[in-house]
């Protein structure tokens, strides 16, 4: 193997990681169109200028079997061979394919940061309004049952009365 070349086995490992992404029943032997586009986006094969999502979709459709919805690793390789000269214009077919391979090797589907940002936004208590705002103190810590339930005040005083608990002192003075 020449200097700077990438083994097909390394590319196949990345292919398998993307092939099973988002599908619990996937074996990693075949990849659907959605995951093929995801691989192309995450590995920067789609650059928006030379290669677009449309190009990737077309190449995917051309390389899969007529009635199939997935491509095998061999068909995947064929698709990359078609995309490589588009992505790296002015380079030989082999050279552009090697550069494409080097973009793919070692990559995994990127979606790790996506959920963290959403969870952070949903759990930021400073953005809560209405009844939900009452459930947390200033530090964002939950108040527990006090924040959720209307706890009845059975002290015998009217709700907003400021002098509650002062009856005994008034009786003493009299």
Automatic annotation (TrEMBL):
From the UniProt record, give one GO term of the biological process aspect.
positive regulation of protein polymerization
Q: Which UniProt keywords apply?
A: Cytoplasm
Keyword Cytoplasm included in the entry's annotation? yes
Task: State the compartments where it is located.
Answer: Cytoplasm
Q: The organism sits in which domain of life?
A: Eukaryota
Basic and acidic residues compositional bias: what residue ranges? 132-151
**One function term, GO molecular function aspect:** tubulin binding
Q: Where is this region: Disordered?
A: 132-174
Cellular component terms (Gene Ontology)? cytoplasm; microtubule
Q: Does the keyword Transmembrane helix apply?
A: no
Q: Which family does it belong to?
A: Belongs to the TPPP family.
- PANTHER family found in the cross-reference section: P25 ALPHA-RELATED, TUBULIN POLYMERIZATION-PROMOTING PROTEIN FAMILY MEMBER 2
This chain belongs to the protein called: Tubulin polymerization-promoting protein family member 3
Organism name: Dissostichus mawsoni
């Amino acid at each position: 193997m020449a200097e700077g070349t990438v083994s097909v086995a390394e590319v196949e490992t990345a292919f398998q990681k993307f092939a099973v992404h988002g599908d619990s029943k996937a074996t990693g032997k075949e990849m659907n169109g959605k995951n093929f586009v995801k691989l192309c986006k995450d590995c920067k094969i789609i650059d928006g200028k030379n290669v677009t999502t449309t190009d990737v979709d077309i190449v995917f459709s051309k390389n899969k079997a007529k009635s199939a919805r997935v491509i095998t690793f061999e068909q995947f390789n064929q698709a990359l061979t078609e995309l490589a000269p588009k992505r790296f214009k002015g380079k030989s077919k082999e050279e552009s394919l090697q550069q494409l391979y080097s973009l793919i090797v070692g990559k995994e589907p990127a979606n790790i940061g996506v959920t963290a940002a959403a969870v952070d936004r949903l759990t930021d208590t400073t953005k809560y309004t209405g009844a939900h705002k009452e459930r947390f103190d200033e530090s964002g810590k939950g108040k527990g049952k006090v924040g959720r339930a209307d706890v009845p005040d059975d002290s015998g005083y009217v709700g907003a009365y400021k002098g509650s608990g002062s009856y005994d002192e008034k009786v003493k003075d009299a």
